[in-house]
Amino acid sequence: MQESTQTAPKRGGVPLWVQIIVWVALVALMVVVALGLNRAQQGTVQPGETIPDFSLPLLDGYTYQGKDQVKFSELRGKVVVVNFWASWCKPCEQEAADLESAWRYYEPAGEVIFLGINYVDTEPEARGYLTKFDITYPNGPDLGTKISQFFRIKGVPETYFIDRNGVLQYVQVGPFSTEAQIRQQVDRLLNQ
Amino acid sequence: MKKIVSLFLLTFIFSLIVAVPALAQSPNPTTPSDDDVNAIARDLYCPVCENTPLDVCPTQACIQWRDLIRLKLAEGQSEDEIKQYFVEHYGARVLSAPPFDGFYALIYIVPPIILAIGLFVFSRSFRSMLKPLPAAGTDDSPEESPQASAGESADDYMHRVEEELKKRD
After folding, report:
1. Which of A119, A130, A86 is nearest to B89 (CA)?
2. What pTM value is reported for the model?
3. How do the pLDDT tens digits run along chain A, 192 residues long?
């Protein structure tokens, strides 16, 4: 038996280093695919998560505290309502007037800030939409869809209610039916 | 003669009155056509619909984006400038061919590497399959042929058998 193992024929197979590279590449590919699938299934950011910092350049005609852009980290201490919308989105129109009305209700006290984030839209149509609904709270485009990727939005409209510490507390997927629904969420955060 | 000149002047003025509005209504030669717009739109994808080129996308949003391309072309922007505007506003995912940059570079690098490794592995395996195996139990030294070695061992065996028979006699 020993003799037969010693004299076994050697085949010129694939070198070990090539085999290692192939297996490492395959494992890396599977990891990338798994991460992609995991991210796709994650859904929007969840209540309890801290929202990462982002900057929103404002559309012409909109300012916040004299600046033409809003930095999220500078809003600590205020309740923040972030609304994603688009001019081509019909359900967005349904809640536009209620959002503006709620903003006008909270604006004088200065404890709440509403931010409108215009998701993949064209500027002329976005301006038309804002004029049509007389939206006065700060609004800006989501350049390169970076902010919507932070929030992992699944569509528009989506509204995020963030507490004074920058922690997400409530997500509304789809439009609000009434102004009372918006105020209920804001009041809850103001009373915390 | 005066009458002819007056008639000529009247005809000229009348022609001007008729021709000027007609000229004003004729299409502006610099207005981009649908073909001009679609030539760029076919290289872009709808940012909100899955895998739909912009030139064939029927949604309201896509109609707005095609109008935007028309507007940019009318302003004199080049194809590259318009595509760059779309990338800045909607992300690189709107491009049908992603840029050779950052994470997207992997799309161009990884497949050729995998293909090269695959071809290398295949060629090595194929060559080893075609190569004849050396006979089992023989020495690989080139000076001694397998046949000669087999003959010698047979002679040795016969010699030992004969010696054994002699002993018994």
Report:
1. A119
2. 0.70
3. 444 444 555 555 678 888 888 889 889 889 988 888 887 777 789 999 999 999 999 999 999 999 999 999 999 999 999 999 999 999 999 999 999 999 999 999 999 999 999 999 999 999 999 999 999 999 999 999 999 999 999 999 999 999 999 999 999 999 999 999 999 999 999 998
- Give ipTM to 2 decimals: 0.74
- Please report the DSSP string for B128-139 in residue order: HHHSPPPPTTS-
- For residue A112, give the H/E element and its range: strand A112-118
Q: Do A14 and B125 touch (CB under 8 A)?
A: yes
Tokens at B76, concatenated: 């004199």
CB A99 within 8 A of CB A182: yes
Closest chain B CA to residue A153: B48
Q: Which residues of B touch A14 (CB under 8 A)?
A: 121, 124-125
Domain residue ranges of chain B, discontinuous segments joined by +: 26-97, 99-128
**Residue from A165, A187, A7 nearest A75 by CA:** A165
CATH code given to domain B26-97: 1.10.8.640
